[in-house]
Amino acid sequence: AGWAPVPSAASDRVVKLLVLAGVFLLLRQAAQGRRETALRWTWAACAVLLAAYGLLQRAGFEFVPDYAAAGSAKRVFATFGNANLFASFLVLSWPLFLTLGGKGNAWKAGRAAGVLLLFAGLLLTGSRAGMTALVVQAAVGAFLFRSELQGLLSARGMRIGTVLVMAVLGAALAAQSGRPTDRMEVWKATVR
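Given the sequence above, the corresponding structure tokens read:
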């Protein structure tokens, strides 16, 4: 019996997140072969389209009037209706680009462009939870795949890369700190 801006808003978001996570897990458990490849490409294509839609929202091109009224130009949320939910989708989606086929430079450039588009979408959500999840995801991934990373990068390159990633994410988090939706302000307003 807590406060919510809309009745059952929290449970609605939890259900949507659980469905999203369930689809992600089903994709991971799909049968090997062409079907799995098709599912990965479909998921990646949808992620790119949604991230592009988020960039359009930020630029002021909103095709759904209710989304414009909700402030989609300030914190993008694509078709998810919630910036944090969209951020969780993007954080779950970008690792798929590492598994997509193709070995030429054009394939690598396409995957890199897709990942950069997803990261731009993540930053535009303004979701501190999403950015924190990305940092945790990167740390866990670096720990789990440290032997592969050591083969690709020198120790110095890994340290420089880590510092650069932390600096960019730290700057993004600092830019979001003055947002009027800071938790303490929300809590204080609900107590009054």
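The mean pLDDT is 77. Try to locate this feature in the token string yourself.
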